[in-house]
């Protein structure tokens, strides 16, 4: 990839960073689609399961907020996951207007397999990096993501 030579370094670097982050997003989407498809899930179902697992018990409103989806889209996702016997929904006893979502007992083994395979996928990606540069690349990525998080602040 070439960068313009007549621009100030900051402009060249910001242009390169913009292109790299766009490529990173594209490859993350490809990776997510590939991985979800492997387990007969959509990428949205995969992300939804990850959020439910991270929170043990989560209400649909919070799930919609975290996934940045409409309540109708969340209902559609949850219906699909319920048909696959991966989640349970129950009315919140403290607030009957709220629906709580949790993983089923059946989904435990399935989720464990997904996590194991997800780890292997990322090990494969790491193995594509030069061994003597992995620590440096991971450290720099961490610094980069901290800068992104600081920029995003309350935007996410």
Would you tell me which CATH topology applies? Answer: Arc Repressor Mutant, subunit A
Largest sheet: 3 strands, antiparallel
Give the low-pLDDT segments: none
Radius of gyration: 20 Å
Give your account of this protein's structure.
The chain is mainly alpha-helical and 156 residues long. It is built from six helices and three strands. It has one domain: Arc Repressor Mutant, subunit A. It is 67% helix and 8% strand. Strands 1-3-2 form a three-stranded antiparallel β-sheet. The chain is globular.
Give the secondary structure arrangement, pairings included.
Elements: H1 9-38, H2 43-55, E1 57-59, H3 60-67, H4 71-83, E2 87-91, E3 99-103, H5 107-127, H6 134-152
Antiparallel strand pairs: 1-3, 2-3
Helix pairs in contact: 2-4, 3-4
What would a concise description of this structure say?
The protein has 156 residues and is mainly α. The chain is 67% helix and 8% strand. The chain has a three-stranded antiparallel beta sheet with strand order 1-3-2.
Features:
single chain, 156 residues, mainly alpha, Arc Repressor Mutant, subunit A, 3-stranded antiparallel β-sheet, 3 strands, 67% helix, globular
């Amino acid at each position: 990839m070439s960068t313009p030579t007549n621009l100030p370094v900051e402009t060249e670097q910001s242009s390169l960073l913009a292109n790299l982050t766009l490529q990173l997003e594209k490859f993350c989407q490809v990776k997510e689609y590939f991985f979800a498809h492997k387990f007969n899930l959509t990428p949205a179902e995969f992300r939804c399961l990850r959020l439910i697992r991270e929170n043990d018990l989560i209400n649909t409103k919070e799930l919609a907020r975290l996934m940045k989806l409409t309540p109708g889209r969340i209902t559609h996702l949850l219906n699909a996951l319920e048909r696959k016997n991966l989640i349970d929904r129950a009315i919140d006893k403290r607030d009957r207007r709220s629906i709580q979502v949790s993983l089923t007992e059946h989904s435990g083994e399935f989720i464990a397999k997904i996590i194991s395979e997800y780890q292997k996928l990322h090990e494969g990606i790491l193995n594509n990096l030069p061994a003597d540069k992995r620590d440096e690349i991971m450290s720099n990525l961490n610094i980069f993501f901290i800068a992104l998080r600081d920029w995003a602040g309350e935007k996410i």
